[in-house]
Amino acid sequence: MTLDVQRIREDFPILERQVYGKPLVYLDNAATSQKPRQVIDALVDYYENYNANIHRAVHCLGEEATAAYEEARAKVAKFINAPSPESIIFTRNTTEAINLVAYTWGRANVREGDEILLTQMEHHSNLIPWQRLAAEKGASVRYIELTDSQTLALDGLENLFDARTRIAAMPHVSNSLGTINPVEKIAAEARRNGTLFLVDGAQGAPHLPVDVQAIGCDFYAFSAHKMLGPTGVGVLYGRPELLEEMEPFLGGGEMIRKVTYEGATWNDLPWKFEAGTPNIADVIAFGAAIDYLDHLGMENVREHEVEITDYALTRLSQLEGIVMYGPPDPRERGGVVSFNFGDLHPHDIGTVLDHHGVAIRAGHHCTQPLMRTLGVSGTARASFYVYNTPEEVDVLVEALEATRDFFKR
Ligand code: PLP
């Protein structure tokens, strides 16, 4: 295996626990990842040693906290090769990052008769903000359809955009199918057409090497909690010229330069978009998560996931009655395997697996329209990360066999 997984597992205290007397097999990483000791320690270190508000204190603790918070921003910028730390806005999560764009850029630029281009595989996070914007402005939403192997139907890519397409937004990697979308190619076409391009990177940044300048996107959104970091921190990368032009999202402290009774002027980037006291501790600990991933190397993280997904696809395909979704080639997909098994309901699968210590996700995965397109009410989904092993895939397969036998009785 590319990564020294046994060594990595030692960094994750939760992997030592048992569930219903069985060792935990955590395969719900697309929902949220587990956290290494280094991230937990960074949180404790902040609260024990330099807890203070940032950007406003003249005292030592405040200066240390400010430096650590801004250092985390610089790490994130480097991690995705953003042109500057100022192009990184901290939000609560991917959802808030996308809402920020729909609310600020969208309200100012989308007009009646305009079009927003999405795909049939959107997470609700990258669907509802655009549907709301379209309804408010009298714009329409169009969806790129799927091929039989659940990749985007991009034949005729050059005709995908028309003069009214103001923005296109889509996942880098589908959370339900695993499909990796060719975002570089689509970004180039969007640029030619004068259409802005937002990538929902919630399943991209944690799993693939990401270079926002090479992709050529205008916005890239992702969440710390899916990449070894704490909950409560999201990232919006925006092309600096665009962020400069955009109005603030929330108003309050920190995002202003000068305030009078009559009005206010705005702070510089990125603080213009970070109103109020931010999530200081979790941002700093996110910096520790980035260090951890940098140390592993994102190329290696990706290679590990290809190996384990390949193994999972092979093992699962040996089960009679299994239906798997997404492209069959592990190089065309992230570490997500969605499936249905005979006539078992995904929730029943999830519940029985849980009693074997195996944590998976079951349901619509916040992609209800996609489930309708697939003609199912939901799927069971196993999703992998840096600490998962082929032996855990074996436990999953054995537990699935036991589930089938349990319901046969
Ligand atoms: N987009 C995709 C593709 C996701 O998988 C998720 C989370 O599962 C989100 C957006 C939303 O992320 P968050 O809940 O952290 O805002």
3D architecture notes:
The protein has 409 residues and is α/β, with parallel strands linked by helices. It folds into two domains: 5-31 and 297-408, Aspartate Aminotransferase, domain 1 (Alpha-Beta Complex); 40-295, Aspartate Aminotransferase, domain 2 (3-Layer(aba) Sandwich), CATH 3.40.640.10. 39% of the residues lie in helices and 17% in strands. It has 13 helices and 17 strands. The chain has helices at residues 5-9, 37-50, 60-79, 94-109, 128-137, 183-193, 212-215, 240-245, 280-296, 298-317, 346-355, 368-374, 390-408; strands spanning 18-19, 22-23, 25-26, 88-91, 115-119, 140-144, 165-171, 196-200, 219-223, 234-238, 256-259, 264-266, 322-324, 336-341, 358-359, 361-363, 379-383. It has a seven-stranded mixed beta sheet with strand order 4-10-9-8-7-5-6, sandwiched between helices. Strands 13-14-17-16 form a four-stranded antiparallel beta sheet, with helices on one face. The longest helix is centred in the N-terminal third of the chain and has 20 residues, at 60-79. The mean pLDDT is 97. Residues 30, 93-95, 123, 125-126, 171, 175, 200, 202-203, 223 line the site of pyridoxal-5'-phosphate.
